[in-house]
C-alpha cells in the first residue's frame, strides 16, 4: 500500500515524466498492430505535424502532436460512421472533440516553421562540391 502512495507522490518530481511513470500510453504499448490503417494514419499524422514544426520538437510539442493525431483519428471515425449511418455518439461530443482539436492546433501553431537550415559555410561547401 505504501508503494502506491509513493508512486503517486513521485509523479512529476525527480525527472518522472508521463512516459517514465506509465501514464503515457503509446500504440506500441497497447499492442496496436502497426499494419492497420489506424496505426498507419497515426504514424503519418505525427510525422507530418513534426515536419510542420521544422523537425525538431520539444517534449510538450510531442505531447500535443500525439493528442492531435489521436483526436484526428477519432474525428475521422466519427465522420465515417455518420456517413455510413452507424452509431457514432452525440453531435455535442463530436463538436467538443473538433473544437478541442482546433484549440490544440492553435497551441501547436498553424503556420509552418522552416526546418533547420545549413550554415552559409556548409551550404557553400555543398554547392561547390567540396
Topology:
Blueprint: H1 2-10, H2 18-21, H3 37-52, H4 59-83, H5 91-108, H6 120-127
Explain what you see.
The chain is mainly alpha-helical and 130 residues long. It has a domain at 49-115. It is built from 6 helices and no strands. The protein has helices at residues 2-10, 18-21, 37-52, 59-83, 91-108, 120-127. Helix 3 packs across helix 4 (59-83). Residues 1-14 have low confidence and may be disordered.
The low-confidence parts are: 1-14
Mean pLDDT: 77
Q: Which sequence of SSEs, written as H and E, runs from N to C? A: HHHHHH
Helix content: 55-70%
Structural class: mainly alpha
Work out the radius of gyration: 20 Å
Q: How far apart are the termini?
A: 65 Å
Summary keywords:
single chain, mainly alpha, 130 residues
Short description:
This protein has 130 residues and is mostly helical.
Amino acid at each position: 500500500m505504501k508503494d502506491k502512495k509513493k508512486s503517486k507522490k513521485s509523479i512529476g518530481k525527480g525527472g518522472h515524466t508521463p512516459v517514465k511513470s506509465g501514464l503515457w500510453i503509446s500504440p506500441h504499448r497497447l499492442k496496436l498492430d502497426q499494419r492497420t490503417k489506424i496505426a498507419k494514419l497515426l504514424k503519418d499524422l505525427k510525422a507530418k505535424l513534426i515536419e510542420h514544426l521544422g523537425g525538431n520538437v520539444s517534449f510538450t510539442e510531442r505531447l500535443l502532436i500525439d493528442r492531435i493525431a489521436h483526436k484526428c483519428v477519432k474525428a475521422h471515425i466519427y465522420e465515417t460512421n455518420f456517413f455510413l449511418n452507424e452509431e457514432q455518439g452525440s453531435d455535442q461530443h463530436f463538436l467538443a472533440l473538433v473544437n478541442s482539436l482546433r484549440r490544440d492546433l492553435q497551441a501547436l501553431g498553424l503556420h509552418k516553421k522552416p526546418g533547420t537550415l545549413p550554415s552559409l559555410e556548409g551550404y557553400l561547401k555543398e554547392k561547390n562540391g567540396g
